[in-house]
Amino acid sequence: MGEWSEYFEDFPEEDPANWVNGIFNPELAARNRSLDHKQTEAKKSANSELNAMIVKAKSETKARSLLITEDCPQCGLQELNTYKISDRFYLCECQDCGIYGKGTSHQIALKNTAAAIGESKDWRDGSAY
Questions:
Q1: How far is 128 from 111, CA to CA, in rounded Å?
Q2: Is pTM, for the whole model, over 0.85?
Q3: Contacting residues for 69 by C-beta, under 8 A, at least 6 apart
Q4: Nearest by Cα to 103 from 88, 115, 93
Q5: Whole-angstrom Cα distance, residue 95 to residue 123?
Q6: What is the C-alpha to C-alpha distance for residues 79 and 73, in angstroms, rounded to an integer?
Q7: In angstroms, rounded to a whole number, what is the distance separating the alpha carbons of residues 2 and 103?
Q8: So where are the chain's domains?
Q9: pLDDT tens by residue, 16-72
Q10: Among residues 91, 68, 88, which one has the least CA distance to residue 78?
């Protein structure tokens, strides 16, 4: 026996995708699939724009929130940026190795960053906040 698609070409009434609400209607089923595809693409586009806006807002917040740059506990380079996002949220991110940590104070964020050594955490894979 050949592929399922060949079988359904020969026997379209056997294809479950050609049935709508228990009625065999391949034209309506195709139209529904096309509409679903268009809606999915529109959602992807809208989500893409929204995600771009979020990334931009986060980078702007980080740019104005830089508190200090110090030595990274993992790679040893002076690339560990600490951001004071708010009074109770601090974020440490190494610009070289990508390790990060967060906390309610600079010391806690730094401690959490050091505790993440060996966990393969990388803020560039998805922001820490």
A1: 15
A2: no
A3: 78, 79, 80, 81, 82
A4: 88
A5: 9
A6: 10
A7: 60
A8: 5-56, 61-125
A9: 888 899 889 999 999 999 999 999 999 988 899 999 999 899 889 989 999 999 999
A10: 68
